[in-house]
Structure formats: C-alpha cells, structure tokens
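Following the same procedure, backbone shapes were mapped to integers, as reproduced here:
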Amino acid sequence: MTEKHPAVYIMASKRNGTLYTGVTSDLPARVWQHKNNLADGFTRKYRVHLLVYFEMHGDMASATLREMRIKEWKRRWKLELIEDANPYWRDLYEDIL
C-alpha cells in the first residue's frame, strides 16, 4: 500500500495568471499529471502548469477542508498567499521531488 501525503496546492499559468487550487494525496504525481496535460479539464484547457504554492497536511480531511476554504477566497487573497510564500512565482515542482 502506498503511503499518502495529503497536500493542498495552487497551480498557475504564469505570474498573476490563471490559478487552480487542488488537493491530492500524492503531490509529485499529481503535479506531473498537470504538467503533462494528463489531467483533463481546467488545467489543460488554460495551460496551468506551474506549481506556485503547496502546503502539506496530516490527513486528507484537513487538506480537503483547507482546499474548500481557499477556493472560496477572493483572488486577491490567493495572490497574497502565493506572494508571501513564493514572491518570485518560482515553479516549485523540483522542490517536491
């Protein structure tokens, strides 16, 4: 059985571009899917391929709750969250491998 590492993440098309907030139990695999257009839907359609923010959680319930709360936020608040943790909007994918 594979060990789960629940995470909330934000992907972007570019700095201040289109944002996507998601939750997963395997962040490296999920981001790889987004980057390679294997995830149908929003991220493929809008070319949202940069991992600009993530936070790890102890369980999927808390990660899912946090994802739902972030999705309710105003765009400005999401941009501030990203800017505080990643002011240069660097793609964090290599950091999680």
About this structure: The chain has a mean pLDDT of 96. The first strand starts at residue 7 and ends at 12. Residues 60-72 form the longest helix (13 residues). Helices lie at 27-35, 42-45, 60-72, 75-85, 93-96.
